[in-house]
């Protein structure tokens, strides 16, 4: 391991030590209580991008947000990882809200936009397989010559697509059937100003009574 890596890891551990001491200082007994249980009201499905750490950008404390993050904030219906997080959050933790959060300048979305214009030769990498549905979605945005505009539109459409998928799951249908009014929201995090924007595409049980 290089000296550079040693230093960066050491800084993380040192910052953690100071953070833990500061929290204990301002919230006496916080960690002792936290160790016993969690009761978050929100499940956050976000991108693995290092620039969108949910607790930091919402100024939340440990225990407030249950989290699932992956490349380009995907929710694949065949993905046991995402499905199990949703199941646990909804049925055991009884969260009230599932929030799918995309972000501007998303590398995964940008790669899919590029691939729609010039398909990659190696289609067998895990990353390309993972981004398959997003690459499919990107095709309808690729013709726009304004790349920035196309990327923004794709990022928002991607969030909307994942909100729809979450709403289709057995977990959510069952929760609604049982009277648990969990809501699914689509948000966008804007890297340029650090603001979260509600895209106004929330879905709840009232939309699925037919």
TrEMBL record:
Assigned EC number: 4.2.1.1
Protein name as catalogued: Carbonic anhydrase
Molecular function GO labels: carbonate dehydratase activity; zinc ion binding
Reaction catalysis annotation: hydrogencarbonate + H(+) = CO2 + H2O
Organism: Meripilus lineatus
PANTHER family: CARBONIC ANHYDRASE (PTHR11002:SF76)
The entry's keywords: Lyase, Metal-binding, Zinc
GO biological process: cellular response to carbon dioxide; cellular response to oxidative stress
